[in-house]
Amino acid sequence: MATDKELNDFLQNVERRAFKQAVYAVRKDESALDIVQDAMIKLAEKYGDKPAAELPMLFQRILQTTILDYFRREKVRNTWVSLFSGFGRGEGNDDDDFDILASLEAEQGSAAAESSADQVERTQTLRLIDDEVQKLPTRQREAFLMRYWQDMDVAETAAAMGCSEGSVKTHCSRATHALAAALQAKGITL
Amino acid sequence: MNIDDINLAYKIRHALDEQLDHLPASTVDRLAAARAAAMARRKPDARAGFGWHGVGAWFAGPAVSRLAIAVPLLALVIGMGGFYQHEQQQQLAALADIDAAVLADELPLTAYLDPGFNAYLESQQRQQ
User: Total structural domains in chain B?
Assistant: First the structure.
């Protein structure tokens, strides 16, 4: 069982990355902070007695579930808002057709996409990379971040994502190629 | 993925890590507060309740929770004891009734040991 210190160290180690992961998904800092807090509390409350080695996979799984819960709540809230406001989103955006993955993949022009000409080149490059990561399809981004940012192996990533190891490899490969192509198109060399 | 892809992935990772250092102070504070809240609500040791460690934890717990467990347990033990005593008394009473009936009967006890008497009883039952 993980000691208090191990659990605290683990959370401290992953909290910022988890926050960015949530921001990539929901695109709202405040909501992302709520999601990370919920995920941390769920991990501590329900899995606080697990060995330290299992914590990364469990936390990622909880984080992904919490993000999905957020989208479900948003969907319900949007349904009620559009029902009573009289200013619906139009027939083409019926909630029945709502697809989280599709909407996240297609959406652009968020705050994170802004760039500032007076920033130093490195900061600008980092921001562009951040944008390109955010633009990745959800599953590709999840797999890529878990494998290469959270240091999880293929098996752990597959368990956290609820898919096969082959799918993880495919997602990672596609994500890397997409990022390489996008960065090359913008003239960014790492 | 080939080596170039993996190298690119780790360069991107480095870039993403670099960005983490530039998070707003308010965000960092909020994350620290979230972590503290999570640690405060950590699941207690699952081993509590088993073995000597669990016994120690049980005695160390609040008096109300101890009573909440001890009172029903005590009631259960007393109830089971009472039920056992009642069953014992019932069995003794039934044996006493049988003994009294046998002793009060006109037939001597030695008759039941006689094989001929048993054969007589069986033949009587068949005739009935």
Answer: 1
